[in-house]
Amino acid sequence: MNKKTTHNVEKFYYDNYRVNKDGTERGLNIYENNFGKLEGGRQHDPIYNDENVRRQIYTFGCSWTYGWGVEQTETFTHLLGDENTAVHNYGAGGTGLDFAAKTLSEVYIPESRRQIFIITVPHYFRRTWFDDDGVIYKPWELKEFVDFNEYNNYFYFLHQYNLVNKFVGRDKIIWGTWECDLPNEMFDVKFETYDLVEDKLHPGVNSHKQYADKLRVLLGKYESNG
């Protein structure tokens, strides 16, 4: 394996930098969506952020989890917070399940009994993919260049799903989805759209509230022991 390969991959994996075709490097802003808009991360909740309370909820996914088009306090992540629950929104626009699994691994604390993870699976065709020059396709462009069939999509999902469940524990994870082309029995909840934001692509305030209500019911059986 040549040095260019290891450099380009590791630059992206460890430093969140994309190497361009001409060799220049650009910081990867994972909160840049299809329209080129930029907005900061929402990992730190403005209200429910006490790392000492007994329940710590982490949410992962794409722009639906991030809450594109709604205020941070209107996202389902924030709505799950209370005086005994801190919430951490790790949703990032345009990303796939591979990014969610990687990010989860960075915040997972094996000895903790207070962490609960909610993964709302993005479009299944989204994944990190390099071309022959070591340049990364944008996740939403990938389906235009690579032909994925149902076998590849399911294998990709199953691989990530089982790895995370095995090493973190299925009992610490709530799996959500907003599409219907994977086995329903592998998911705990569906993020349904009751309204949309201005771009007509992302769920609105009422949709986030309804999803939070469903998750709150599920969280009743995930009470922390620590």
Give the amount of beta strand, in percent: 5-15%
* Number of DSSP E strands: 7
Percent of residues in helical segments? 25-40%
Radius of gyration: 18 Å
Largest sheet: 5 strands, parallel
Widest beta sheet: strand line-up? 4-3-5-6-7
Which keywords apply here?
five-stranded parallel sheet; 226 residues; 7 helices; 14% strand; alpha/beta; two-stranded antiparallel sheet
How is this structure best described in words?
It is a single chain. With 226 residues, the chain is α/β, with parallel strands linked by helices. It is 31% helix and 14% strand. It contains seven helices and seven strands, in the order αβββααβαβααββα. A hairpin with a 5-residue loop joins strand 1 and strand 2.
Explain the layout of strands and helices.
Layout: H1 3-15, E1 17-19, E2 25-27, E3 55-60, H2 63-66, H3 76-79, E4 85-89, H4 97-107, E5 115-121, H5 142-145, H6 150-168, E6 173-177, E7 189-190, H7 205-219
Parallel strand pairs: 3-4, 3-5, 5-6, 6-7
Antiparallel strand pairs: 1-2
Provide a brief overview of the structure:
The protein has 226 residues and is of the alpha/beta class.
